[in-house]
Design a protein that fits this description.
Length: 280
């Protein structure tokens, strides 16, 4: 679905897109659906396993709550659920992981984009959560470029590209697809009574990424998709290799009803969307 195309009826419950070696499904909240995950419940994964393609036997689901730009290696995961011939690999705090062919990645979210990154020869597929805190080292933002980092990589995008380099893949041979994220309404007002200093630092930093600031000095919104794109481009990924699915989790509606969970909207902030990436 192109960024400018109007929503069609078949898109209101889920969108399915082919990106390189992957088939990606984005599942929203229309009709009262909620993809929230209860990892303490033995049956808490059932609604996700029910939409998993029949041929997929293993599903990778990192826990991205730390949003610290970590991309885990497969041995860091443990079997979290086994049911009806399907295995969920989880129990690992990370933003992302490489997905073997024939297997899948899933994440539940409410505004944070999911990124599927792969190489020109389609040998490797890396999927990751691209929330705001995954994209910016807060310590560096507040102390300046010469400040002390709080983590190895400023952004999960930088980490992902460094891992591809270790595999012998250069940025110019990388392709990226971004799914199910917020484009508008993500306000960071400079004069916020509690977060003004951080917001100002964030907004100033975002000026380096084309299109990252929306309504600057009015509502001071940031576009996470544009930030991911900008960070990838500054690392050498060609702009024509970076694609969006056209979704705006904050704004999109169908016949007056919101299609996606959004942490920036009170009625929808406790619900979750589902992004499912099948590496075929």
């Amino acid at each position: 679905m192109s960024q400018s195309a109007p929503l069609q009826k078949e898109h209101v419950v889920k969108t399915i897109k082919v990106c390189g070696p992957a088939l990606v499904g984005c599942f929203g909240i229309l009709g009262g659906q909620d993809w929230k995950l209860d990892r303490t419940n033995p049956n808490g994964f059932d609604h996700i396993l029910n939409v998993l393609p029949d041929e997929v036997q293993r599903l990778w689901m990192p826990v991205p709550t730390k949003a610290d730009a970590t991309i885990a290696l497969s041995p860091e995961f443990k079997k979290e659920v086994q049911k009806d011939g399907k295995t969920v690999m989880g129990k690992c705090f990370a933003d992302g992981v490489f997905i073997p062919k024939g297997e899948a990645f899933a994440i539940t979210s409410a505004d944070c984009p999911t990124v599927a990154m792969y190489d020109r020869k389609e040998r490797h597929m890396l999927c990751f959560h691209a929330g705001r805190d995954s994209l910016f080292d807060r310590s560096v933002l507040l102390s300046g470029i010469s400040g002390t980092p709080s983590r190895e990589h400023f952004s999960v995008v930088h980490n992902a590209l460094s891992l591809f380099r270790e595999l012998g893949v250069l940025p110019e041979d990388i392709f990226m697809n971004l799914f199910c994220g917020i484009r508008t309404g993500f306000q960071h007002q400079r004069h916020h009574f509690m977060y003004g200093e951080y917001n100002s630092s964030l907004l100033n930093w975002c000026r380096r990424y084309e299109g990252a600031l929306v309504n600057e000095n009015i509502t001071d919104e940031i576009d996470l998709h544009a930030i991911v794109r900008g960070q990838a481009i500054e690392c050498g990924v060609p702009s024509q290799h970076i694609h969006f699915d056209g979704i705006d989790t904050y704004h999109d509606t169908w016949t007056g009803r919101h299609l996606w969970a959004s942490a920036r909207s009170d009625p929808r902030k406790k619900k979750r969307n589902l992004v499912l990436v099948h590496h075929r």
